[in-house]
Batch of 3 targets.
Target 1
Amino acid sequence: GEAGQAKLLAAPPEKMVDEQIVTALHVAMRHQLDTPQALRASTRAGELTADYLLANRIPRPVQALLRVLPATLAARLLVLAIGRHAWTFAGSGQFAALFLPHALGKGAPRLRFSITGCLVCRGAEASQPACAYYAATFERLFRKLVHRGANVVESRCEACGDSSCEFDIRW
């Protein structure tokens, strides 16, 4: 199709793909779908990515341990793992995680992820955050491994003119 990657439909990649391919796929999706459809497709892709990680990349004993630990401790361990493997989803972008003080109040974010130089919204201009893919991936992982009520909201987005894409995580 428009991204020049139709071959991926016939034979999904078995190894990491160049970040330019990822960006091209997201650009093509935004051009071919209206905003609500693109956000739904991006969300579903993020959920499927998290399911793949749970099935193939995060060892079962580690998953079992995270599920029985207190949520804050499980989140800290998961964040360490995400940070070590950030190159796999942020590419040349920069990933950071910040635990926020509980003094912010009930319902306040407990954790914030940021991606500067985001592959998903690179070159995009939007009036609302455009990185539903990352938000859905993070949310599914946190719901399965940290707390079933975890919620991830993209609060800032480079596509909206912000300096980075930021994801607030609550549980």
Note: The chain has a mean pLDDT of 91.
Target 2
Amino acid sequence: KNSPASVKNTSAVSTQRSNPKAPLVPAGSYTLQVAAVTNQADALDLAARLQRKKFPAFVLSPQEDKFYRVQVGPYADQKAADVARRGLDTAGFKAIVKH
């Protein structure tokens, strides 16, 4: 599975799979994908902007392709993910629900 990268301090962010500060996404939970980009710096910048708006954003390192995925979550159920998606939409971000 993809490994999330912590984006607390964008000046020293790592997208290594072994990053012990990366949020764990439990099996069966929901996340919201805001973007998939090929440039790591762009992904980290977007995740930092989302975090400044109080969304629990993180970046997944590329695995089988070249894309860094900017995601928000995780959420325990579809209802919580939908509420968060509406919040992202209100803040000007489009997202898709991933399960």
Note: Strands lie at 4-5, 30-37, 57-60, 68-75, 96-98.
Target 3
Amino acid sequence: MLNIVLLGFMGTGKTSVGQRISEKLQMSMVDTDTIVETDNQMIIGKIFDRYGEDYFRNLENAAVRKASKYTNHVISTGGGVVLRAENLNLLQENGLLFCLKATPEEIFERIKDDSHRPLLKGPNPPNKIRHLLQTRQVQYQRIEHQIETTNSSIEEVTNQIIGIYQSASSPPQP
């Protein structure tokens, strides 16, 4: 079975929705950020602080390579996975890709109390969110299935993704 791959900016619901899909479809779930942290025995914030973003993106690519070999999994990715086309190509080989989206305001509301977001350190996180969304927009738009999460519950988003996945996974009817 194909993997369900959840992509999108931080705070769009990838982990929460992924967990719910995993429960409903009885599929294993893996998170590329967790793979990075486990394989390197260091949280992402420390990796960023100690080695920088480029180094982290290389580790993230290794995590994507590992996750893309799985079958019948829900794969939740870090928000910057789209920055390397190779990552999307790897994930698409054995997965159906979904881009979860939300407004910058909604993203900020969802993550404002989370201190584990290294890209949002510093002044004016809402502006940083808008800027990062804008710079990644082209990559996010390349993903076939676009799912808006701003005014939707986890259950609504989950059901929408499951419906698309089941339609795509079903053999065509004669």
Note: The longest helix spans residues 125-141.
